[in-house]
Write a structure and sequence with these properties.
This protein is mainly alpha-helical. It contains 4 helices and no strands. The radius of gyration is 14 Å and the shape is globular.
Length: 91
């Protein structure tokens, strides 16, 4: 279980609902990537990103999954979006 102070500021004090489901999707996607189950990872990451489009790390992971599935153009698009979000959050 995550300590309250370990959560990003915008997520503190929220339980259940979209946040908990999003965390589950990310955990499942990471496990799928680790096992080489790229289609499952892609589906979970797309579902997660429909509610959290600004998450650069999830977009980069989706790019990796798409690349492994042979979708080079889709992978490039997601990695470009990830880089754009990462630049926006560090500026």
């Amino acid at each position: 279980m995550t300590n309250e102070e370990d959560r990003p500021a915008g997520c503190r004090g929220r339980t259940g609902g979209v946040l908990a489901e999003g965390e589950k999707l990310l955990e499942r996607a990471e496990g799928s990537l680790a096992r080489g189950e790229y289609r499952a990872a892609m589906i979970d990451l797309q579902n997660y990103l429909s509610d959290h489009p600004e998450n650069a790390a999830a977009r980069a992971q989706l790019g990796i999954a798409l690349l492994e599935l042979g979708d080079v153009n889709g992978a490039e698009a997601e990695i470009r979006k990830a880089a754009s979000w990462a630049r926006a959050t560090t500026s």
